[in-house]
Structure formats: structure tokens, C-alpha cells
């Protein structure tokens, strides 16, 4: 099954299958990268497209230039210290490109 | 039909809270300033009440009945719905399918993002702090609270709709529904099955 | 720990009230108002979310629609769509209408 892309992102940094790490930053202000996933490593599951940056939109700016949004897949046992479910449980989170580094 | 003031409260909802008064005051002020009309708000209310909540079960029932539609829905949820005549407005939909090996469940930990144009308003539990806190970390325990037990050999996939995408679950079609028409199929596709906290029951 | 009061995924919490308590009439109208504001591009959803987060500790003391209504009020005041004085006046007018 081909993961869907909503808008093209030809100049993207990452591709489906790439291993990435979420930055372990804690900046103030409106962010859409949940604290629980910061610093964690996962794999690009799909490229969602390019969207205006919500961190800027939140304050009345136009959010341009658009940023690439990815869905990143993580193993639950690697996200939580003592994960109580199955070893093969996963969590998928949408992360903007500027929050990602190659792992 | 009585011609009550358009902003009079429904009689069964009790005396208005401060927030109800605030909300009505904001709306009336914006109407006076010509920034919106009561009719626009009323039309949105109708869409949320009467139109949106009907759609999800029909779309997924159609996907169960029609493998080509199912494929298109999984590839591009919004486009597939548009082709079928449903405008999902701002919702960029990703449909995630349950399989014998994978069970999907949806949350928005940061607020209450939800495919409203497909499912209507989210239930109070979806917006609750405890659901947002716990389902990402202990999905199996949370599903048990809803009476849903997923065996260990089936992997649970939690989707945090934390940015611009919206999600709907395509449950597995249960045995005993062979030969059912789409209306019958839709009747077991409750909202809770489409968010992933319940399984369709024959 | 994130300073954003909305960023709560993974925190310890008690049982979930799994019953859907639905929406009161005013909540449905508040939701439609919010939706009308965003679809008419008077505000952005991102601004509303940020305004809710700006409530700080108050975030946890309010129910869902109380929070979204206060966030809407604060954002619309911030954007100058109406003044505090205009709002206070309208609130009194609405309150009187209910009391009568």
C-alpha cells in the first residue's frame, strides 16, 4: 500500500524508511511536537506534504515558507521506560522536518 | 412554532453558566459588527448535528462492500470521499485499516483534533485529559476500560493526530455479515469502532 | 517537562469516563461559532489552540468548552475584533435577558 501524500514535497530532506531522531529541544511557545516523543528515534512512515508552519500561524504570521510534515513510526517499547503492552506495539506521530535529524 | 429570541437557551439545559453567557455575548457582538451572521452559525450547527455524524459509518460500510473504493480510501482518504460526493472541508483524512495483525486507535494528545467533517463532534471521552494522557502510553489498558481486549499477538498502533492529518479506522469486517447491504453494515460501524476503542459487533 | 499545559501525552492519570456525555445546546452553538470564525478566516485554528495553551494553569481548571470559549475571548480581544468594554457591556445585556 502506497502511503498517501497530500501535497508534493520534492525538496524534502527525508524519505519513507529513513531512520530519524526527534530533537530533544524544549522551546517555549506553540509547538506541535509532543514532549513524550522528543529525543526518540523512529522511522519515516510517510511524507504528508508541505504545510504552513503551525508554530508561526499560532501567532498570526503566515507560516511561510511551508515545512515538510512526516508521519514517523516508533516502537512503543523504545518510547516509554516500562511499556506494558506487546513488544510489537507502535505509535505514529506527525513531526515537522525541522524537528528531525538523521538517526 | 414560537418565535423566541434566536439566542434563548433550550429549556432543558438549566440556567446559563458564565461561559454560556460569554459565548453568546461574543457571538452577538460579532454579528453586530457584521463579521458573521446568526444564520451562518446555525447552518454550521446543523451540519455538525445532522450531516457529519452520518458520514463515517456510510463511508466505511462502502469500503467494506467495495474493494476498489477501499483501496482508494486507504491511498487518499480525502480524495476517495470527494469522489463519492463527500466534501471533508479542512480534514486531510488518513484511513488506517485493522488487520488480523494490527489494531489501530486514534487520539489527539495536544487538543482534540478529530475528523469532524466525517464523524461529527468527538465524544467527551476523546477530549478528556485522561484519554489524551493515557492512550499513547498504555493503549491496551485504556481499551480494556472500553471493554475491548486486543490479544497480545495483534499489535496496537496508536495514531496521535498532533498536526495536520486526521484519522479514521477501517475495522475488520466481522464474520456473520456476508450478504449484508451497506445500510446493515453501517449499522454496526459505530463511532467508537471508527476511533478504535471498540470492535464492530454482529 | 513541557511548559505547554496541553502537552499531556504520556502523563499518569486515572480512569477514563468512557460514557459520551454529548453536548448542551450552548456548547453546540459555541462549537459552530468557533467553526464559523475559522472557516471565515477571522481566526486560525492554530491561534485558538495557542490561546488555549496561554491559559496556563487555568487550562486544567476548565471544562473543554469553557476553555475554548475563554481562549476565543482572549484571542478576539488580542486581535482587536472587539474591546473589553464592548464585551463587558454585551455580557451584561445577555445576562439581563436570561434573568428576565
Give a written overview of the molecule.
- The complex is a heterotrimer of chains A (103), B (202) and C (100).
- Chain A is mainly beta.
- Chain A is built from two helices and five strands, in the order E-E-H-E-H-E-E.
- Chain A has a five-stranded antiparallel sheet with strand order 4-3-2-1-5.
- Chain B is of the alpha/beta class.
- Chain B has a single domain, classed as Nitrile Hydratase, Chain A.
- Chain B has a two-stranded parallel ribbon. In chain B, strands 2-3 form a two-stranded parallel ribbon.
- The N and C termini of chain B lie far apart (42 Å).
- Chain C is mostly helical and 100 residues long.
- Chain C has a domain at 42-99.
- Chains in contact: A-B, A-C, B-C.
- Chains B and C meet through helix 1, helix 2, helix 6 and helix 7 of B and helix 1, helix 4 and helix 5 of C.
Summarize the structure.
With 103 residues, chain A is mainly beta. Chain A is 8% helix and 33% strand.
The level 1 CATH classification of chain B is Alpha Beta
Largest sheet geometry of chain A? 5 strands, antiparallel
Q: Fill in the CATH topology of chain A.
A: SH3 type barrels
Largest contact between chains: B-C, 56 and 56 residues
* Residues in helices of chain A, as a percent range: under 10%
Unreliable stretches of chain B (pLDDT < 50, length at least 5) are: 1-6
Percent of residues in helices of chain B? 40-55%
Q: Cα-atom Rg of chain A, whole angstroms?
A: 14 Å
Q: From N to C, what is the helix and strand string of chain A?
A: EEHEHEE
**If you average the pLDDT of chain A, what whole number results?**
92
Overall SS class of chain A: mainly beta
Named CATH architecture of chain B: Alpha-Beta Complex
What number is the mean pLDDT of chain B?
A: 93
Strand arrangement in the largest pleated sheet of chain A = 4-3-2-1-5
Number of strands of chain B: 4
Structural topology:
The complex is a heterotrimer of chains A (103), B (202) and C (100).
Chain A lengths: L18 E4 L18 E11 L2 H4 L9 E9 H4 L10 E7 L3 E3 L1
Antiparallel strand pairs in A: 1-2, 1-5, 2-3, 3-4
Chain B lengths: L17 H15 L5 H28 L1 H9 L1 H7 L8 E6 L4 E6 L8 H4 L4 H4 L1 H6 L4 H7 L9 E6 L4 E6 L11 H7 L2 H5 L7
Parallel strand pairs in B: 1-4, 2-3
Helix pairs in contact in B: 2-3, 2-9, 3-4
Chain C lengths: L24 H15 L5 H9 L4 H4 L2 H15 L5 H16 L1
Helix pairs in contact in C: 1-4, 2-4
Amino acid at each position: 500500500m502506497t502511503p498517501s501524500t497530500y501535497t508534493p514535497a520534492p525538496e524534502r530532506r527525508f524519505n519513507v524508511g529513513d531512520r530519524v531522531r526527534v530533537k530533544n529541544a524544549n522551546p517555549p511557545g506553540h509547538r506541535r511536537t509532543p514532549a513524550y516523543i522528543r529525543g526518540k528515534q523512529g522511522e519515516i512512515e510517510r511524507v504528508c506534504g508541505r504545510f504552513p508552519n503551525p508554530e508561526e500561524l499560532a501567532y498570526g504570521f503566515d507560516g511561510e515558507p511551508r515545512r515538510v510534515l512526516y508521519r514517523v513510526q516508533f516502537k512503543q517499547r523504545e518510547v516509554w521506560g516500562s511499556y506494558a503492552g506487546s513488544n510489537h506495539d507502535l505509535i505514529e506521530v506527525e513531526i515537522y522536518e525541522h524537528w528531525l535529524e538523521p538517526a | 412554532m414560537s418565535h423566541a429570541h434566536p439566542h434563548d437557551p433550550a429549556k432543558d439545559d438549566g440556567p446559563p453558566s458564565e461561559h454560556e453567557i460569554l459565548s453568546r455575548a461574543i457571538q452577538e457582538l460579532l454579528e453586530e459588527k457584521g463579521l458573521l451572521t446568526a444564520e451562518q452559525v446555525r447552518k454550521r450547527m446543523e451540519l455538525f448535528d445532522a450531516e457529519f455524524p452520518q458520514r463515517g459509518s456510510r463511508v466505511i460500510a462502502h469500503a467494506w462492500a467495495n474493494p476498489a473504493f477501499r483501496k482508494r480510501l486507504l491511498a487518499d482518504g480525502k480524495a476517495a470521499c470527494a469522489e463519492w460526493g463527500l466534501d471533508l472541508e479542512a480534514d486531510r483524512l488518513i484511513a488506517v485499516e485493522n488487520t488480523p495483525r494490527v489494531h489501530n486507535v486514534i487520539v489527539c494528545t495536544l487538543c482534540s483534533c478529530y475528523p469532524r467533517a466525517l464523524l461529527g463532534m468527538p465524544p467527551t471521552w476523546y477530549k478528556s485529559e485522561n484519554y489524551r494522557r493515557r492512550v499513547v502510553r498504555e493503549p491496551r489498558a485504556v481499551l480494556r476500560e472500553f471493554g475491548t481486549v486486543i490479544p497480545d499477538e495483534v499489535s496496537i498502533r496508536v495514531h496521535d493526530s498532533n498536526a495536520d492529518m486526521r484519522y479514521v479506522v477501517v475495522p475488520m469486517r466481522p464474520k456473520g455479515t456476508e450478504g449484508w447491504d451497506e445500510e446493515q453494515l453501517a449499522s454496526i460501524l459505530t463511532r467508537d469502532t471508527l476511533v478504535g476503542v471498540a470492535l464492530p459487533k454482529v | 517537562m513541557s511548559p505547554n499545559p496541553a502537552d499531556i501525552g504520556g502523563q499518569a492519570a486515572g480512569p477514563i469516563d468512557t460514557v459520551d456525555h454529548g453536548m448542551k445546546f450552548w456548547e453546540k452553538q459555541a462549537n459552530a461559532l468557533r467553526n464559523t470564525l475559522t472557516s471565515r478566516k477571522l481566526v486560525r485554528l492554530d491561534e485558538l489552540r495557542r490561546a488555549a495553551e496561554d491559559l496556563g494553569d487555568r487550562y486544567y481548571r476548565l471544562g473543554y468548552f469553557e476553555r475554548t470559549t475563554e481562549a476565543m475571548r482572549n484571542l478576539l480581544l488580542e486581535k482587536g475584533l472587539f474591546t473589553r468594554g464592548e464585551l463587558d457591556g454585551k455580557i451584561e445585556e445577555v445576562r439581563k435577558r436570561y434573568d428576565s
